[in-house]
Amino acid sequence: MKELTHFINGAQVKGTSGNFSDVYNPATGEVQAKLPLATPAEVSKAVEDAAEAQVAWGATNPQRRARVMMKMVALMNRDMDVLAEALSSEHGKTIPDAKGDLQRGLEVIEYCIGAPQMLKGEYTDDAGPGID
């Protein structure tokens, strides 16, 4: 049985509570993994690390943030099939439906990459389906 971990401060962290919850595949109803339930200390650590990371991210200029998102787009496109499989097993979606959701997410990210230009005060009608 696959045992999941927490993801805290950029690292996989094994849970320490000893308590687990089953993760079901909604398409089959089968248990596909065990999820460690976090202790209050693990939750506090995750929140503290996220708050600390936000300070540095908030101080990063918009162009550099956009470059990070460009890398995310490249990785999502590279790993589209793997991501679609994961989304399907988590939500019971068909693979084509999962790929559609991922594509919509990519459209949002690609639009946000242009945010530094929008900070100049310009407005664009119909930048994408349902996006102004």
Notes on the structure:
With 132 residues, the chain is of the alpha+beta class. It has two domains: 59 residues, no CATH class; 72 residues. The protein is built from five helices and five strands; from the N terminus they run E-E-E-E-E-H-H-H-H-H. The strands form two sheets. It has a three-stranded mixed β-sheet with strand order 1-5-4, with no helix packed on it. The chain has a two-stranded antiparallel sheet with strand order 2-3. Strand 4 and strand 5 form a beta hairpin. Helix 3 crosses helix 4. The model has no long low-confidence stretch (mean pLDDT 89).
How would you summarize the topology of this molecule?
Blueprint: E1 2-3, E2 6-8, E3 11-13, E4 20-24, E5 31-36, H1 40-59, H2 62-78, H3 80-91, H4 95-113, H5 115-118
> Could you give the count of β-strands?
5
User: What string, H for helix and E for strand, traces the elements in order?
Assistant: EEEEEHHHHH
Low-confidence stretches: none
β-strand percent reads 5-15%
* Spatial separation of the terminal alpha carbons: 46 Å
**Which structural category fits the helices and strands?**
alpha+beta
Shape: flat
Multimer state: single chain
The largest sheet has its strands arranged as 1-5-4
Average pLDDT taken over every residue: 89
Largest sheet: 3 strands, mixed
Helicity range: 40-55%
- Count of alpha/pi helices: 5
What's the alpha carbon Rg, rounded to whole Å?
19 Å
How many domains make up the coordinates?
2
